[in-house]
Amino acid sequence: MNKPQNVVRLLGNAETTSVERAVSEMRSGRPVLISADEGDVIVLGVEALEDDLILRLSEIAAGSARLVLPAARLRRLGLERDVPGTIALPVIDRARIEALALRLDAKADAPVSAAGVLDRAALELSALSLILPALVIVPLGADVLMDPLTSVAVEAVLDYRRSATAKLRIISRAPVPLEAAPTEFVVYRGGEGLRDQVAIIVGTPDLNDPVPVRLHSACLTGDLFGSLKCDCGDQLRGTIRWMAENGGGILLYLDQEGRGNGLANKIRAYKLQSQGWDTYDADEVLGFDLDQRRFDFAAEMLRLLSVKRVRLLTNNPEKIGAVKRAGIEVTSHERVIGRPTAENVLYLTSKRDRAGHLIDVEALNARLTAQD
Hints:
Elements: H1 14-27, E1 32-36, E2 39-45, H2 51-61, E3 65-69, H3 71-76, E4 85-89, H4 94-102, E5 112-114, H5 117-129, E6 135-139, E7 151-153, H6 154-158, H7 160-166, E8 169-177, E9 182-189, E10 196-202, E11 211-217, H8 220-224, H9 232-245, E12 249-254, H10 263-274, H11 279-285, H12 296-304, E13 309-313, H13 317-325, E14 329-334, H14 345-355, H15 361-371
Parallel strand pairs: 1-7, 11-12, 11-13, 13-14
Antiparallel strand pairs: 1-2, 2-6, 3-4, 3-6, 4-5, 8-9, 9-10, 10-12
Helix pairs in contact: 1-5, 10-11
């Protein structure tokens, strides 16, 4: 009689682990397998298409592949869509796929079908991976033999952000003296893919009162290099100074580059902007809606610091609403305005007119004229 084996589980939540492995594979340009009751599909980002891989996928696909695109990109292809869709790929033609995914003057060249749950999961995986939201989907037949791929269940992908937020934790903290004030940096893990998040506690804010808080999305070009195309660096440094002079506060520095699109896609959008595209139109060309960011994990960061009431320092109504929906009381909200430049006034105007940001562009233009 065989002795029963003792199963030792070392990976914690297997569903969360599978998504994180899939994110790593997608960012590395390798295909992953998404499974559901209706079958399994191979998913590959358009960025990762190489001729030899196309040949191997074509053998498996046997004419059944499809391209899944988000609603924003479909609109750029001339279709009035507010949900993602798919385009059949009888042949996995790299030039055609790249045109449909990226070319500025491309138009839909075939009927577009409604995206199913597997397609939506693939798009969510691309968002978590910060790659271009355009994916080749190949249904996997039961008789196909191939190298084992990282596999993830469709439900695990669609539930990942919620489950990851619930597992957010502080992993390190230390005092860091800044020029403007003494601060403490608190580092969190979890909440958004495989990226760490940071809270900067400025001074000694009184947690019994509403705490001044800013949710600041990382901006490499503005925060670190002083780009004139945005006001992010000014907002970051100005907020720290204001908190230092007004009893302290907390700045959440969130790894959500490019309104959640990732650094590579942000730079793609910057190239389009240099050719005259508006910031939001440039994102739509790439397949992104106005803003991909989510802020539920930011509220959890505050809860882990025992913050229950806040004075939000923001121009973005979506941040105000997200913090409230997450159960943090917002007692007030105040504007955070950086310096106007000839390069960023159009950008700030677009944020006001198209995303509802609370920005007095006329006053900024007056300041810019005065500077001249």
